[in-house]
Amino acid sequence: MSAPARYTLHHPRWYRRRISVFWWLEKRSYVVFVLRELTSVFVALVSVLTLLQVRAILAGPEAHAAFVSGLGSPPAAILLLVALVALVYHSVTWFELAPRAMPVRLGGRRVPDALVAGANLAAWLAVSAVAAALVLGMTR
Amino acid sequence: MTRSPTPLFWLLFSAGGTLAAFLFPVHLLLFGLVFPLGWAEAPSHARLLEIVEHPLTRLGLFVFISLPLFHWAHRFRYTLYDGLMLKHLNTLIAVLCYGTAAAVSAVAGWTLLAVR
Fold this sequence. Notes:
The structure holds 2 protein chains of 2 kinds.
Chain A: H1 28-59, H2 61-71, H3 74-101, E1 105-106, E2 109-110, H4 113-136
Antiparallel strand pairs in A: 1-2
Helix pairs in contact in A: 1-2, 1-3, 3-4
Chain B: H1 6-34, H2 45-53, H3 55-83, H4 90-113
Helix pairs in contact in B: 1-3, 3-4
């Protein structure tokens, strides 16, 4: 009447579409996501550079002068400019993300995300201006 | 009950991300571009040394260097995990990322403690 049932020893494999490692190039929003995640590499670079600068300062005036002139060389300056763009992108996306990761409530109502992000952006600019003024004032 | 270490790493990730978001751009602008390229007069070495030697500055520098490294470790770990689809190497990637952040932090701590 019907073919005898066949049993396989192993569980059948379901069909799964193979996804390329470059899946994130398929859509603009995926590329933006991966670029945002990769800003962390430049964050780590700045941490390491800060440590190297502290070590150069402790090693003496000549070591520090050599370190600073190394940073001023064209390849380093181009890398640092790229890093600065990445860091600014990190800051802006971080402030946009903050109200979504941690909603702020006031009087039982959720404060609009744009307001929280805007306040963070304004605080960032203020903190940056104060920090720059302090550092630039150290020459006096 | 075993406790997952994930909340700790997430806390370090978000604290480091916030610190980097607020202070890293201005820091890199001044010490990475403005001073090396001579766009403004840089603080003298003597003044910088005096500041670095202060105990509170050293504590601050340790946090300034270390927390963002753990931000990188967490974010980069999941970028490799999702982006390159290396789910089978999850443990190795986690150990390498957090391990690198911990190792560089240890060098920073040792450098800052050894002053004077």
